[in-house]
Amino acid sequence: MTVRLAVNPAAALPLLELAEPYAVTGETLAEAIAGQAVFELLADGEVVGAFTLGVHDTASGRQLHCGAAGGLPGYDLAGTMTRFAEHEANRIGAGQLITHTRRPGLVRRLKREGYQIAGYIMTKASP
What we know:
Layout: E1 2-5, H1 13-16, H2 29-33, E2 37-43, E3 46-58, E4 61-66, E5 69-71, H3 77-92, E6 96-99, H4 104-112
Parallel strand pairs: 4-6
Antiparallel strand pairs: 1-2, 2-3, 3-4, 3-5
């Protein structure tokens, strides 16, 4: 599988929209990916997934953030995306890779890739 900068980012939106139901803080897809670059995952020349990456410079250093990711079933999207993101983080001098998710399967997968849970977000519906 290969990764490329999206030729037409708008065409990747249907794949990225697959992530919207899993938004951690209720942000819209547009809010989650604002200012981020859109990448496509290709298998045999066909776009099978998409993800976004954005750079944030903070007091604790540079971070690379994945705002949204989605794709077709049957492909190792998480593995390909993490390897690409790690390469990009090294290339730009980012000390951290960050993503927000509430998908238990993705959390388990990322933990196997060496990621750690950095915190929790607690919510309660207003009465």
